[in-house]
Amino acid sequence: MSGPTGPGPGDDGELPADEAAADTPTRTERREARWAVVRRRRRVLAAVAGALLVLLLAFTLWYELESHALGPAGPQVVVTVHEGESTDSVISSLSQQHVISSSLAFGISDFFHGTPTVLPGSYALHQNQTFAEVRAILAAGPNIYPVDVLPGFTLHEVATEVDGLPGHAPGGFEKVAASGAVTSTFSPPGSDNLEGMLGTGQYLILPGESDTTILGDMVQRFDRDAGAAGLSTASAAALGLTPYQVVIAASVVEKEGYVAVNMPDVARVIYNRLARDMPLQMDSTVLYAIGQDGGTVTSKDLQIQSPYNTYLTNGLPPTPICMPSTTALAAALHPPPGSWLYFVLVQKNGVMAFSDTYAGQLANEQLAKSRGLP
């Protein structure tokens, strides 16, 4: 029987020196391990840098394509900037109307180039314009000019507004209007007079628009509005008039009626006087004859020999005396029943009193005088 076994050679718990040396990394191995780590890190960094470069190139390409608007400019559009409107809102409007395709890219452009000061007003631009072109147009200020044709305006008053626009010469608008180049559906045969037949409201005049184009737009609006109000050969014939005569009556209603509530009754007075072959005796027609808009008619004015002096000449004046509103046109087409022959302003808010007799008119005039009215 053998006794307990003791540790043999090398059994003191440690590996032999040659085995321990075999398991310990050499300097070369450590160096190679470090280089392996470095290489891995470099590959990761290279991959990240490559990805960033691709992203940068993609972003640059996207931005250049957005800002330079490949292809020709598209149709013209109008962008209106309102008082106090924010830059973001303006950029959004440009994007919605396809002047620019990316509001984000345009905002980035503003960051690099500075935000232009955009004045309130209307701007004519084109779809698919470059950022540089858009910025230049906005920085230059509004390039579309509003022209208001108010009810009661004469052709001469409208012409004064149009002639004052950039690119338009004094007298040019009235010259075109008298040329016969533009006519209304309701113009009588052979007439070149467009007084009374320009649609009321605001027009935005685009850069380069000619007097003929502007006039055509105004007459087209009148034809549309008059038709919508019910003016036609048949509706005029029901009143014993032509469509043009209804426009003439409506223009007098516009000037004499002051406010909408009076207009139908003023139309009835006009038709009653025509039916009785009485002179209309409307101050507005005399003032038109002397080229005056409003004011007092003097006894000297009443003696003027003119077909527009309805104190001396029976019937309607030969042409309209102003641009009637659709309200005045509707009143002339649909006068209420009544036998009134006279009217006078009796309230400071513009309301008139109507009477059948001259005695009633005198009483109403006295009422007006007592209220401090002319």
Describe the overall structure.
There is one protein chain. This protein is mainly alpha-helical. Helix content is 47%, strand content 8%. It has 14 helices and six strands. The protein has helices at 17-23, 27-68, 87-96, 103-113, 131-140, 155-163, 172-177, 211-229, 233-237, 243-257, 263-275, 283-289, 326-333, 358-370; strands at residues 76-81, 121-126, 145-149, 201-205, 342-345, 352-355. A two-stranded antiparallel sheet has the order 1-2. β5 and β6 (352-355) form a beta hairpin. α10 (243-257) packs across α11, α10 crosses α13 and α11 (263-275) crosses α13 (326-333). The radius of gyration is 42 Å and the shape is elongated. The N and C termini lie far apart (153 Å). The relative contact order is 0.08.
Secondary structure layout:
Layout: H1 17-23, H2 27-68, E1 76-81, H3 87-96, H4 103-113, E2 121-126, H5 131-140, E3 145-149, H6 155-163, H7 172-177, E4 201-205, H8 211-229, H9 233-237, H10 243-257, H11 263-275, H12 283-289, H13 326-333, E5 342-345, E6 352-355, H14 358-370
Termini gap: 153 Å
Shape: elongated
Proportion of residues in β-strands:
5-15%
SSE order, one letter for each helix or strand: HHEHHEHEHHEHHHHHHEEH
- Counted by DSSP, the helix tally is 14
Main beta sheet strand tally, sense and closure = 2 strands, antiparallel
* Mean pLDDT value: 88
Radius of gyration computed on alpha carbons? 42 Å
Strand order of the largest sheet: 1-2
Give me the secondary-structure category: mainly alpha
- Portion of residues within helices: 40-55%
Low-confidence stretches: 1-5
* Strands, total number: 6
